[in-house]
Amino acid sequence: MSTTTEEPRARTESTSAVGERDTSVKKMLVYAALAAFAIIYIYPFVIQLVTAFKTNSDAVENPLSLVPDPFSLDAWNRLLETQFPLWFTNSVVVTLFVTAMRVLFCSMAGYALARLKFFGRDTVFTVLLALMAVPGIVLLIPKFLVINYLGIYNSYPALILPLAVDAAGVFIMKQFFEQIPPSIEEAARIDGAGPFRTFWSVVLPMARPALITLTILSFQGSWNELGHFIIATNDSSLYTLTRGLASLTSGGLGSGNQYPITMMAGLLMTIPTAIVFVFFQRYFTQGANTGAEKG
């Protein structure tokens, strides 16, 4: 009797052990795949970081080496002799203005599409969705024609104004405003608040997660923008970091590739974006979670 009850138990334990081994093997394979993708993603950045502190000859002879031999700050010193500080200043000015204007205008447009009733609202939203599907590069020539027609070519307004509103930003804000209960706005109207007062004092403070998300996306997008800055100016005193870095990699340094100085410029260019993301990361995550819960 005892033999007949122990055999099924033994088979069950054996099946359970096989299942645990299969699970462990699957986990190891998943971790190995994740580690491989992480290395593929991180390795180019490590190469950039190390190359920035190499001499030019070392960078050419040992491009994939992870140890600078010798360690050198020549790239940093040479970069300061270029117009890099001017490019950095221009990027900061343009990015701050674009981010502030984009957050304000996208919020107002999103609120109007979500709450205000006016003729053609659905048509405007349909056009907005269609614009999101158009590749940005297709709009470069029309942008250049408009900038030239307005007479602002080779000026800060040419760099800033065409980027002041973004279809994706309007869409994000509209979707968030639609999640806010209308009863809150009705209470504000009963207290005598007009549409703009209701938007500015009641609804906009509640949209903090969406505003932070839009701020991060706007800062990153305008900081890394290149195509628009190419068609907006050919004055080297108005070059931003992306435009200046592109000139360095296309012969602006004279003969030779001179990888260390271009890698140093690229490394310095990534620092502000990384700082913004790290500083707002917690709020960015909260915004995503809030959107998921409400969705």
Structure explained in plain terms:
The structure is a single chain. The chain starts with a helix and ends with a helix. The chain contains 14 helices and no strands. It folds into two domains: 56 residues; 168 residues, MetI-like (MetI-like fold), CATH 1.10.3720. The C terminus is likely disordered. Helix 5 packs across helix 8, helix 9 packs across helix 10 and helix 13 runs antiparallel to helix 14. It is flat, with a radius of gyration of 27 Å. The chain has 295 residues and is mostly helical.
Gist?
The chain has helices spanning 2-51, 56-61, 74-80, 84-115, 121-132, 140-150, 156-160, 167-177, 182-190, 195-206, 208-223, 227-232, 241-252, 259-294. The protein is mostly helical. The chain is 76% helix and 0% strand.
